[in-house]
Amino acid sequence: MIYICHKSHSNILMTKVHGVFTQQDFEEAFIPRLQEILAEFPTVSIVAEFENDFMGWELAALWREIKFSFEYLNVINKIAIIGNSSLLKWSFSVLHPLSHISIERFAHGEIEKAQAWAAIT
């Protein structure tokens, strides 16, 4: 499940992910909010906080996220990933070399540090 924590008039999309990230989360919560931000700003940075109960992606959501990466490649500035799970560490190591997008991983409790990093253009 995803919670959107975005502040108005900001090009930083803040999210918290619990449990399993589903295609429904992606299509009904994440993408619409991202598109709202892109209607106001030319680029967006994402701060994604993965809670300790994060168990991974539903297969359909993972496939949608891969397609998303190509669709929005030119409008995503940075991605800050907050979380300590080994799954996140693995996905970070796989995704980072494949993208020109700046991606940085932060430990739990470093939300302000992640936000500050995402805000730097």
Structural class: alpha/beta
Assigned CATH superfamily: STAS domain
Q: SSE order, as H and E?
A: EEEHEEHEHEH
Oligomer: single chain
Characterise the protein shown here.
With 121 residues, this protein is of the alpha/beta class. The chain has a single domain, classed as STAS domain (Transcription Regulator spoIIAA, 2-Layer Sandwich). It has helices at 23-40, 59-71, 86-95, 111-119; strands at residues 2-4, 12-17, 20-21, 44-50, 56-57, 76-82, 102-106. The strands form two sheets. A five-stranded mixed β-sheet has the order 1-2-4-6-7, sandwiched between helices. A two-stranded parallel sheet has the order 3-5. Helix 1 (23-40) runs parallel beside helix 2. The protein starts with a strand and ends with a helix. The mean pLDDT is 83.
Describe the secondary-structure layout.
Blueprint: E1 2-4, E2 12-17, E3 20-21, H1 23-40, E4 44-50, E5 56-57, H2 59-71, E6 76-82, H3 86-95, E7 102-106, H4 111-119
Parallel strand pairs: 2-4, 3-5, 4-6, 6-7
Antiparallel strand pairs: 1-2
Quick overview:
The chain is an alpha/beta fold. 41% of the residues lie in helices and 26% in strands.
